[in-house]
Amino acid sequence: MDYLPYFIGSGFLIVIIIVFNSRKQKSRLKEFSIEPEEAPSLLMVQSVERKLKAIYGKLFENGVKSGDNNGPAASPRKQQLIKELEQLEAAYADKKISLKDYSEKLQNLQMKVIDL
User: At what angle do helices 76-93 and 99-114 cross, to 10 degrees?
Assistant: First the structure.
Protein backbone atom coordinates (compact mmCIF):
# COMPACT_ATOMS: atom_id res chain seq x y z
CA MET A 1 0.00 0.00 0.00
CA ASP A 2 2.96 2.31 0.52
CA TYR A 3 3.82 2.10 -3.19
CA LEU A 4 0.41 3.14 -4.53
CA PRO A 5 1.10 6.93 -4.49
CA TYR A 6 4.41 6.33 -6.31
CA PHE A 7 2.70 4.26 -9.01
CA ILE A 8 0.01 6.88 -9.47
CA GLY A 9 2.61 9.69 -9.55
CA SER A 10 4.86 7.87 -12.03
CA GLY A 11 1.87 7.03 -14.24
CA PHE A 12 0.80 10.68 -14.21
CA LEU A 13 4.38 11.75 -15.07
CA ILE A 14 4.53 9.28 -17.98
CA VAL A 15 1.24 10.59 -19.39
CA ILE A 16 2.52 14.18 -19.19
CA ILE A 17 5.76 13.23 -20.97
CA ILE A 18 3.80 11.46 -23.74
CA VAL A 19 1.47 14.45 -24.24
CA PHE A 20 4.32 16.99 -24.43
CA ASN A 21 6.33 14.72 -26.74
CA SER A 22 3.31 14.31 -29.01
CA ARG A 23 2.84 18.09 -29.27
CA LYS A 24 6.53 18.54 -30.01
CA GLN A 25 6.42 15.91 -32.76
CA LYS A 26 3.32 17.49 -34.33
CA SER A 27 5.01 20.89 -34.49
CA ARG A 28 8.13 19.33 -36.03
CA LEU A 29 6.02 17.50 -38.59
CA LYS A 30 4.15 20.69 -39.46
CA GLU A 31 7.45 22.57 -39.99
CA PHE A 32 8.79 19.72 -42.10
CA SER A 33 5.69 19.55 -44.29
CA ILE A 34 5.54 23.32 -44.85
CA GLU A 35 9.22 23.68 -45.74
CA PRO A 36 9.27 21.58 -48.95
CA GLU A 37 6.44 23.59 -50.46
CA GLU A 38 8.64 26.66 -50.36
CA ALA A 39 11.82 24.96 -51.52
CA PRO A 40 12.34 23.92 -55.15
CA SER A 41 11.77 20.30 -55.91
CA LEU A 42 14.93 18.25 -56.27
CA LEU A 43 13.46 16.49 -59.28
CA MET A 44 12.69 19.84 -60.93
CA VAL A 45 16.27 21.04 -60.35
CA GLN A 46 17.69 17.82 -61.81
CA SER A 47 15.37 18.14 -64.80
CA VAL A 48 16.56 21.69 -65.46
CA GLU A 49 20.19 20.56 -65.22
CA ARG A 50 19.58 17.78 -67.77
CA LYS A 51 17.85 20.19 -70.15
CA LEU A 52 20.68 22.70 -69.87
CA LYS A 53 23.25 19.97 -70.49
CA ALA A 54 21.40 18.84 -73.62
CA ILE A 55 21.05 22.41 -74.91
CA TYR A 56 24.68 23.24 -74.23
CA GLY A 57 25.74 20.04 -75.95
CA LYS A 58 23.93 21.05 -79.15
CA LEU A 59 24.68 24.77 -79.17
CA PHE A 60 28.29 24.85 -78.04
CA GLU A 61 31.42 22.94 -78.97
CA ASN A 62 32.04 20.10 -76.50
CA GLY A 63 29.07 21.37 -74.48
CA VAL A 64 31.15 24.20 -73.03
CA LYS A 65 30.20 27.84 -73.39
CA SER A 66 33.13 30.01 -74.42
CA GLY A 67 33.73 33.19 -76.40
CA ASP A 68 34.84 31.21 -79.49
CA ASN A 69 31.43 29.59 -79.98
CA ASN A 70 29.68 32.76 -81.13
CA GLY A 71 32.06 33.29 -84.03
CA PRO A 72 31.14 33.85 -87.67
CA ALA A 73 30.94 30.07 -88.28
CA ALA A 74 27.74 29.84 -86.22
CA SER A 75 24.55 30.06 -88.25
CA PRO A 76 22.12 32.94 -87.59
CA ARG A 77 19.57 30.47 -86.23
CA LYS A 78 22.13 29.07 -83.78
CA GLN A 79 23.18 32.57 -82.71
CA GLN A 80 19.52 33.46 -82.10
CA LEU A 81 19.04 30.35 -79.94
CA ILE A 82 22.20 31.15 -77.97
CA LYS A 83 20.92 34.68 -77.36
CA GLU A 84 17.55 33.29 -76.25
CA LEU A 85 19.31 30.90 -73.84
CA GLU A 86 21.40 33.73 -72.38
CA GLN A 87 18.30 35.88 -71.84
CA LEU A 88 16.51 32.99 -70.19
CA GLU A 89 19.45 32.28 -67.88
CA ALA A 90 19.73 35.97 -66.97
CA ALA A 91 16.01 36.18 -66.17
CA TYR A 92 16.23 33.13 -63.90
CA ALA A 93 19.42 34.37 -62.23
CA ASP A 94 17.71 37.70 -61.49
CA LYS A 95 14.70 35.77 -60.09
CA LYS A 96 12.35 37.30 -62.62
CA ILE A 97 10.89 33.86 -63.43
CA SER A 98 10.20 30.86 -61.21
CA LEU A 99 11.90 27.49 -61.48
CA LYS A 100 8.76 25.97 -63.00
CA ASP A 101 8.56 28.65 -65.71
CA TYR A 102 12.30 28.33 -66.31
CA SER A 103 11.93 24.59 -66.79
CA GLU A 104 9.02 25.02 -69.23
CA LYS A 105 10.88 27.63 -71.27
CA LEU A 106 13.98 25.44 -71.34
CA GLN A 107 11.80 22.60 -72.63
CA ASN A 108 10.56 24.82 -75.47
CA LEU A 109 14.11 25.94 -76.21
CA GLN A 110 15.30 22.35 -76.19
CA MET A 111 12.68 21.48 -78.81
CA LYS A 112 13.94 24.34 -80.98
CA VAL A 113 17.54 23.18 -80.54
CA ILE A 114 16.64 19.61 -81.53
CA ASP A 115 15.23 20.96 -84.81
CA LEU A 116 18.50 22.84 -85.44
Answer: 170
Beta-carbon count within 10 A of 91 CB: 14
Q: What is the pLDDT of residues 60-106, one digit of tens each?
A: 876 666 655 455 566 888 889 999 999 999 999 998 998 889 999 99
User: Model pTM?
Assistant: 0.60
- The count of other CB atoms within 10 Å of the CB of residue 96 is 10
